[in-house]
Known about the structure:
This is 2-polyprenyl-6-methoxyphenol hydroxylase-like FAD-dependent oxidoreductase. The protein is an alpha/beta fold.
Amino acid sequence: MKVLIIGAGxxxxxxxxxxxxxxxxxxxxERDLAPNADTGGYRVGxxxxxxxxxxxxxxxxxxxxxxxxxxxxPRYFNMLTEQLGEVLSFDIDDASPNALDGEKxxxxxxxxxxxxxGLEDDVFFGKTLETYxxxxxxxxxxxxxxxxxxxxDVLVGADGTRSAxxxxxxxxxxxxxxxxxxxxxxxxxxxxxxxxxxxxxxxGMSLIMAPMGxxxxxxxxxxxxxxxxxxxxxxxxxxxxxxxxxxxxxxxxGARQNFPRDPAGLSGxxxxxxxxxxxxxxxxxxxxxxRMTAPSTIHDVKMRTSVPLTPWTSSNxxxxxxxxxxxxxxxxxxxxxxxxxxALLGRMLVAADQGRKPLVEAIQAYEVEMLRYSTExxxxxxxxxxxxxxxxxxxxxxxxLAATRGVMRTINAIPALKRRAFRQMMxxxxxx
Length: 432
């Protein structure tokens, strides 16, 4: 069996590794022109379930490299006011002490570089899919914009939110604008910037709930491995220059109708001023973090989400990750769900390759289960980022914010409630 994978993102590369280790012939086609292309985004959060799925897909040596290039795991997950007052704080070590490798933070570009190792002869760049064609003999041919083509037995669309595979395979699938806009950036971690964070903020990840439905996230990325680490250099000498610098990242979002102006098309300097305008009256440490951010690192993002699909008739063309279930970052579930897809689809395709299950039946089993858990993840993620929510209204939003904070403070004070709330949060990210 030969599997064509369209897209060399996290999910597509994880799937490629799993299949290659099982002896399945694979080829990955990526629209980016080069492996080090800026794929957007600085940090991706990998949950314990995401790490388990990744470990099931890639060789042990590669998993060790992934762990070595991650930032230290966050100890706390904090919910704060815009004045940085604590509303709810989970101690992750206490809440899930047996989770594999804990919660991880990794730079998206670095993760891609890790996952490309061992696939150098299997990934082809500068390949933008134009269309694909199914044939009566059960084969499928992918045709690319440069005039080239490739033929295999299975085609997997792992080509992200703008998926060309989804457009042809499921033309009824659609994305919707959540009405939420965001901007964010990062600053180098120095004595000065570190002093802006409390101990729990520095050692964890913090979400801020502010009036008018505005929200923010702050995360510190401190890497245990440095370029001068002799152990890392001895094991992966060719990867030393790819190691990341310590930094503090921030993101800010809100409903379009509450933004002073549309961030689309603004320069980095203008986005920084917009961030300061939105956070007027917030804690001075947060504003200082925004003020110290280099304009070149600040970008804006429109929040879109997929509309959950009903089951379709399965074939030898399928989808994974953002190509089939784009979701907002409201629950941090996007990359983790893609990894879950890769591990599940990989197992099904290996079973088909080994004759233990008919091919289309194997793909159908994957699609049924994938739709089940991804639909919940999409819906839960949207709840956190929907401009239609009452939280974004001037008066009723303040009432709702006060009530929400009150409930969270109650949960924070009662250990049993806190454990239950933590389990619910992690369940959406793939934890049973």
